[in-house]
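Quick log. Single chain, no ligands specified.
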Amino acid sequence: PLTGSPVILKILQNWVPRVSHYFDKEHYTYAGHQIVIQESIEHFGAVVWPGALALSQYLESNQEQFNLKDKKVLEIGAGTGLVSIVACILGAYVTATDLPEVLENLSYNISRNTQNMTMHKPEVRKLVWGEGLNEDFPVSTYHYDFILATDVVYHHAALDPLLATMVYFCKPGTVLLWANKFRFSTDYEFLEKLCSIFNTTVLAEFPESSVKLLKATVREN
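-> predicted structure:
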């Protein structure tokens, strides 16, 4: 069962659109920092989706509830890196992960927006959902306080490996924050599966963008 009475929010227009033919650079402001994101039209993961804006905004506005300072944060499906950059600005030890073909643009955006800052240096790593988790992220070494995921659920074949990845990284004490645009029946089916495994709460809804922000934690017996 899904619990919580979500706050109803609007994604704030806090960016200045810039247009260019090849790479679009989007300019955002979060946590008092100007963030410039380079998008690529070649990959799904290289565009800023609404869930990333929703989660970035929520993390910035709810730092008392979710204090990321000195916490270990893993972002899965990091895409352009916006959420990881915001988490980094908020003081977290961030590991941003995605598919190999997305990493170059992801690394570029993260290093460009976090260099010369005094906070913890973020890390960018390859993570294919459901593959090589034990080898690349052994449980004995890696424990995360927060798992962040935005717009990772859409029409694709990797939903079961995605869920398995969430289950793998969510240990007792870990908080999964997942923001997603809900469009298809598959999105709701994924949510049902998530609710059957985790304690799941709706933290916020952004009706204009059809985005829900959910918090999930491991059921402790």
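Residues 185-197 form the longest helix (13 residues).
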